[in-house]
Specification:
The chain has 118 residues and is mainly β. It has a domain of 79 residues. Helix content is 0%, strand content 42%. The chain has a 7-stranded antiparallel sheet with strand order 1-2-3-4-7-6-5, with no helix packed on it. Strand 3 and strand 4 form a beta hairpin. The structure holds zinc ion. Zinc ion binds next to loops. The site of zinc ion has 8 residues, from loops.
Length: 118
């Protein structure tokens, strides 16, 4: 069982493989509370992996929040980054040639007569 670095809760196995006669070796985990994920990496990557690193998997960005050596293995923890659809809105260049240079011609109201008595 693996503990979530964020909430301390137990993470459940998200993926397991059978390798080298070892059945159902767990290689990935997920926290049910905050969607933190953990996965195994080769320990030699330890120095190349930095907390705060952001990568993208299947269009979903995530940030590395924790890493630890567990036995002979490196475990890295990520939290998903939720973004507000940055690609959704086409960014239009602001109109720069046109400037509202003239003061509004409106706002002139006829003066002189006040309503009321005749
Ligand atoms: Zn958690």
């Amino acid at each position: 069982m693996r503990a979530c670095p964020k909430c301390g809760g137990a993470m459940s196995a998200a993926k397991s493989i059978t390798v080298g006669g070892l059945e159902n070796k767990e290689i990935a985990w997920r926290c049910q509370h905050d969607q933190i994920t953990a996965e195994l990496r080769h320990p030699v990557q330890y120095v190349h992996i930095h907390v705060g690193d952001v990568d993208e998997i299947d269009g979903h960005r995530r940030r590395l929040v924790h890493k630890e050596i567990s036995g002979a293995e490196l475990v890295v923890y990520h939290e998903p980054l939720i973004e507000k659809s940055p690609a959704a809105k086409p960014r239009r260049a602001a109109p720069r040639a046109r400037r509202a240079a003239k003061p509004s011609a409106r706002g002139k109201r006829p003066t002189g007569r006040r309503p009321g008595r005749d």
